[in-house]
Task: inverse folding
C-alpha cells in the first residue's frame, strides 16, 4: 500500500505536468503547414483617403483543403493600418481583416504570412489610396461663353478613380491662362466633385489637376468650350481642361445726312450693324436716342437700315445708338447733326388793272407761290382789300385769279394780300397795292 502522503504528492505532480502541457498548448499558435498557399483578396483596388475595405486571406493546404479552423494569419501593410493585424481562419480557410487607408495618398502593399508560408510579393494586394487612385478628371464650365465685357463661369471637376468610381477627398489644383480663380485648391466631396469660379474678360483655358503635378493634357484645338477627359493615369496623376470663351460684340455705326436737314423736315440717317466675326450672336435690337428728348427702337437690324427723324427746331443734336445682341452684349456709337432753319415760302402777286375808269372794274391777279424744298402749301387765301376774300387751295407754282371791284371810288386804293399755310404749320403773307381808276 502506497502511503497517503505519497499519493497526495504524486497527484500534485501530475496536475503540475498537465497544467504545464496545457499552458504550452495555448501559447503555441496553429499555423499553416509547409507547402500551403495563401491567396490575398481585396474588395477594391482603389480607396479615397480615410477609406476602408476588407482584406481576405485564403489558406489552402498542400492537399487542396482548407487548414484547421483557427489557423493564425498575420497581415502587413506599408501604408495605412490593418485591424486586427492577425486573424484566424474560419472553416473554409478564410481570414478577414479590415484595411484603413488613413489620410495619406500612395499605394498600399498588403501581404500575409502564416508559419513559414507567405504571400508571394508579386501576388501581394495593392490598393491605390487618395490621389494615387485617380483615373480621370472631367472638367466642365457653365457657361462656356461669356459676354464681351467678361463675366463669371462655374468650373466643375468630377474626379474618378481607376475603377470609374467617384474619388472623394482628393485635392484638385486649378489653374487658368487668363482671368482669376476664386479658389486654386479645392477638395472633392463625397460625389467626387470640386468647383471654383473663373472670372475673366478674355478667352481662358482652365486646367484641373490631381496628383503630384496633375499629369499633362494638351488642351483641345477647338475654339468652343467643353470637357476634356484624359486617359486613366497609371502614376496617380490626371488632369483635364475646359475652354471658356468671351463673345465678341457686333459693330455699329450711324451716319447723318450729307447735307444739314431743315427743322420740321425728315432727316435720313443710316444705321449700319456688322455681325461679330467670332463668338458673336445676332442683334436683337437697336435703340436710337435722337438727342431731342425722343428715342426710337429699331428692333432687329442686319446690315444697313435707313431711319428718318424730324427735328422740330433748328440746333445741333447729339444722336446715339445702342445695339444689343441675343447674348446681352451691347455696343454704342454716336454722331451729331446740325438742323438749320427752313425758309418761308415766297409769294409774288402781280395785278393787271384796267386803265379805263369804271364803277365796276375786274382786276386779274397772277399769284406765284414758291415753297422751299420738302415743304408743300396746304392752303392759300386771297384778301382783295374790299372786304372780300377767296380760298385758293393748295397753290403750287403760279395761278391766275380775278376779282371785280364794284361801286368803288375813282382811283381808289386797295391792299391785296395772299396768306398761305405750309405743311410745317407756318403762315406766310404776301401783299401788293392796286389803284382802281
Result:
Amino acid at each position: 500500500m502506497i502511503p497517503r502522503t505519497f499519493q497526495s504528492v504524486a497527484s500534485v505532480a501530475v496536475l503540475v505536468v498537465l497544467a504545464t502541457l496545457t499552458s504550452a498548448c495555448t501559447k503555441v499558435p496553429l499555423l499553416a503547414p509547409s507547402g500551403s498557399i495563401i491567396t490575398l483578396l481585396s474588395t477594391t483596388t482603389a480607396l479615397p483617403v480615410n477609406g476602408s475595405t476588407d482584406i481576405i486571406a485564403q489558406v489552402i493546404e498542400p492537399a487542396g483543403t482548407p487548414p484547421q479552423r483557427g489557423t493564425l494569419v498575420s497581415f502587413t501593410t506599408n501604408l495605412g493600418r490593418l485591424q486586427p493585424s492577425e486573424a484566424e481562419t474560419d472553416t473554409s480557410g478564410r481570414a478577414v481583416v479590415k484595411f484603413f487607408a488613413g489620410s495619406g495618398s500612395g499605394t498600399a502593399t498588403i501581404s500575409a504570412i502564416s508559419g513559414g508560408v507567405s504571400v508571394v510579393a508579386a501576388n501581394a494586394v495593392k490598393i491605390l489610396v487618395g490621389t494615387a487612385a485617380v483615373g480621370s478628371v472631367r472638367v466642365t464650365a457653365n457657361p462656356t461663353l461669356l459676354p464681351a465685357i467678361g463675366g463669371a463661369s462655374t468650373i466643375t471637376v468630377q474626379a474618378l478613380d481607376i475603377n470609374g468610381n467617384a474619388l472623394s477627398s482628393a485635392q484638385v489644383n486649378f489653374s487658368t491662362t487668363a482671368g482669376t480663380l476664386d479658389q486654386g485648391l479645392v477638395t472633392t466631396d463625397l460625389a467626387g466633385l470640386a468647383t471654383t469660379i473663373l472670372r475673366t474678360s478674355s478667352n481662358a483655358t482652365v486646367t484641373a489637376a490631381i496628383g503630384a503635378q496633375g499629369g499633362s493634357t494638351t488642351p483641345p484645338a477647338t475654339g468652343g468650350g467643353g470637357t476634356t477627359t484624359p486617359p486613366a493615369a497609371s502614376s496617380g496623376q490626371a488632369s483635364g481642361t475646359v475652354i471658356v470663351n468671351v463673345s465678341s460684340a457686333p459693330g455699329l455705326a450711324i451716319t447723318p445726312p450729307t447735307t444739314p436737314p431743315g427743322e420740321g423736315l425728315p432727316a435720313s440717317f443710316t444705321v449700319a450693324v456688322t455681325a461679330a466675326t467670332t463668338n458673336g450672336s445676332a442683334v436683337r435690337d437697336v435703340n436710337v436716342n435722337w438727342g431731342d428728348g425722343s428715342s426710337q427702337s429699331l428692333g432687329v437690324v442686319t446690315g444697313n437700315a435707313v431711319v428718318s427723324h424730324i427735328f422740330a427746331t433748328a440746333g445741333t443734336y447729339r444722336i446715339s445708338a445702342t445695339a444689343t445682341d441675343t447674348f446681352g452684349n451691347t455696343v454704342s456709337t454716336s454722331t451729331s447733326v446740325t438742323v438749320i432753319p427752313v425758309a418761308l415760302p415766297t409769294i409774288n402777286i402781280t395785278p393787271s388793272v384796267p386803265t379805263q375808269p369804271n364803277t365796276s372794274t375786274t382786276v386779274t391777279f397772277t399769284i406765284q407761290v414758291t415753297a422751299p424744298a420738302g415743304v408743300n402749301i396746304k392752303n392759300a387765301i386771297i384778301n382783295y382789300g374790299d372786304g372780300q376774300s377767296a380760298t385758293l387751295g393748295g397753290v403750287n407754282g403760279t395761278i391766275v385769279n380775278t376779282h371785280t371791284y364794284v361801286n368803288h371810288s375813282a382811283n381808289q386804293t386797295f391792299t391785296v394780300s395772299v396768306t398761305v399755310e405750309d405743311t410745317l404749320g407756318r403762315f406766310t403773307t404776301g401783299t401788293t397795292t392796286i389803284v382802281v381808276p
